[in-house]
Amino acid sequence: MAEFKGWPFSEEEEKEGAIDEIVEFCSLSNLKNLEVNKSGSLKTMKRQTNSFFRKGEAGDYVNFLSPSAVELYSKIVDGKLSGSGDCTAGSLKQRPGIPSPGTPL
Questions:
Q1: Rounded to an integer, what distance in angstroms lies between the CA atom of residue 56 and that of residue 32?
Q2: Does some domain include residue 32?
Q3: pLDDT for 100 beyond 50
Q4: Shortest CA distance to 61 belongs to which of 11, 105, 9, 22?
Q5: Would you place residue 105 in the very low, low, confident or very high pLDDT band (cuts 50, 70, 90)?
Q6: Same domain as 66, residue 36
Q7: What kind and span of H or E run contains 47?
């Protein structure tokens, strides 16, 4: 991602484990356990902040979204990410272990 954005890591940063630290910091398990994400609420949405995290399993969206909602979100994501390489919703549908929209787990 850093290289894609034009800010690649130096050899020294890579050797010192900067990438591994960032990956760990951004992991779902770490984000779920940050105090700010465990307590509090968003007044504008009337939701607890801990309600924003689910299991974090690829493809679990099919248990929460209707097939038409999945198609709508896929089109939006495809449009926003078009031209950015192999990271569109359409490309994800083709990957092993990630079900196509509307496919039950």
A1: 10
A2: yes
A3: yes
A4: 105
A5: very low
A6: no
A7: strand 47-48
